[in-house]
Amino acid sequence: MERTMQNRYRQKIIPQEQFVDQRLDFTIVDIQLNPPHSPNLRTWKTSSTTLLKEALDSIDEQTNAPSFRLVEVIRDSSNRNYIDHISFHDLLTGFHISNETHVLIQYNVLGFHCFQHHNSVSGEYTCYINDVPYMLLWSVNPTKIYTRAILLCSNKAIHSNFAQFRNALDMNKHLIGEPSFLPVTSALLTVHNVHRHINKQRMEVRKIEVKFGFSTWNYPELTIGSIDGVDVSQLTGYTKLIASSLVAIGDMKRRLKLTELLLKSVEDKECGPMKRKNGSSEVRLLQETRQQLALQIQCAQIQNDYLENRAKNQFTVLFNLINQRDATTNINLAAQAKEDSSAMKTIAVMTMAFLPGTFFAALFAVPSLQWTGDKVVTGRFWVYWAFTIPVTLVIFAIWVGITVQQKVIGYVQEVWKKSLPKNGDNAF
Fold first, then answer.
1. Whole-angstrom Cα distance, residue 164 to residue 196?
2. Which phi and psi (to 5°) does residue 46 adopt?
């Protein structure tokens, strides 16, 4: 049943849109272990046209000496592999890497996975590791003692990560014959990278703690919560910085957990396809390394949790400081609005004081009033009121219309919507 389910789950080919053929150069790493001679590590560049020939050269050579070959392929953050898709699948086939990995590559699945080749008489198996910056897949032939691997790197510092992995291979090249060599090497690099990033984020968080004084550290020269000379844009910038640190801390928690599962899986699988040579010095070295890494992971998790709490505390501090600055700004605006209101009130009072006099001065200056004659009010005085009263009413009507324009428009739109037939109603 398990074999049938795996066959159904198998992806025959990775979609072509996940490949970019840019005719890049590829690096090949080759290690040969020929006791009693020292291990020999070679690296060389090859073009896309000669990649398959050089990568697959002597792959089936009959020998009892352990050998290792790795091809580096660039993989960007959009999960696109910078290699021709046909060449990549030919490389997978030539390296005897199981089709079970196709779906893992396509969907960028994290973690450690191992697949036994059921039709292989030599006990071949394929392994897959995805730990964010690295995606590593390889096959192992226990009979011929060779390992064939593909390393895909999806990070901005692609070339430095490749170099870091090469250095790790070079320092531990005498272990290439051990099944757990690549998983332990990957875990070692991950733990070291996490330690480096934890230290970096700790310095970022401490920088903000020093700036505002909210921490367990004693900074007597600082005023707690002082935001003098710090504007809102700077506070927003610090908030983005601490939010970025929280994201990085979350990523480190994920990577530590994945590495912990990786080491546990390696230990479990050493009783299965990844059989070990009990008692050899290489096996003991890898076991000790795994134990040390497991302890380092626990310590890193403790440090990471503590750092996360500090970062969350600073995020809360910055949020409160921004609210404090906003509240101060609102208070100042309210005070200015009050001053403006007082000024407008003064203007209104002064206007009211002059209005009666102005009104009567204009009224008495009307030509229909004859102040020098026997009769002051003439027969045409009604014309003044006939124009004044309607125009005044029109002006007030226009003012009311402008004031309540939005309310009227909203009311009309609501009435119009209600008059329309509801969705699904049959109009016929």
1. 14
2. -145, 155
Q: Which residues of the chain have pLDDT under 50?
A: 1-9, 222, 271-272, 424, 426-428
The pTM for the full model equals 0.71
3-state class (DSSP) for residue 177: coil
CA distance 32 to 151: 18
Residue whose entry in the numeric block shows the structure tokens 């792959």: 59
Catalogue the long-range contacts made by 196-203 (C-beta closer than 8 Å, 24 or more residues apart).
Answer: 197/248, 197/252, 198/252, 198/300, 198/303, 198/304, 198/307, 201/245, 201/248, 201/249, 201/252, 201/307, 201/311, 202/307
The per-residue pLDDT for 423 is 54
- Cα 147 to Cα 162, 295, 386: the distances in Å are 18, 29, 107
**Four-residue CA torsion sign, 48, 100, 162, 110:** positive
Asked if residues 129 and 262 have their Cβ atoms less than 8 Å apart, the reply is yes
Residue (of 76, 19, 79, 28) closest to 52 by Cα position: 28
Q: Please, which residues have CB within 8 angstroms of residue 30's CB and are 6 or more apart in sequence?
A: 41, 42, 43, 67, 68, 69, 70
pLDDT at position 228, please? 60
Locate 328 and state its tokens.
Answer: 């101060």
pLDDT at 103: 93
- Angle, nearest 10°, between helix axes 281-364 and 181-212? 30
Beta strands in 2-99 (DSSP E): 26-32, 40-46, 67-74
403: which 2 tokens? 């004031």
Residue with tokens 């080749």: 117
- The domains of the chain are located at 2-177, 183-340, 363-407
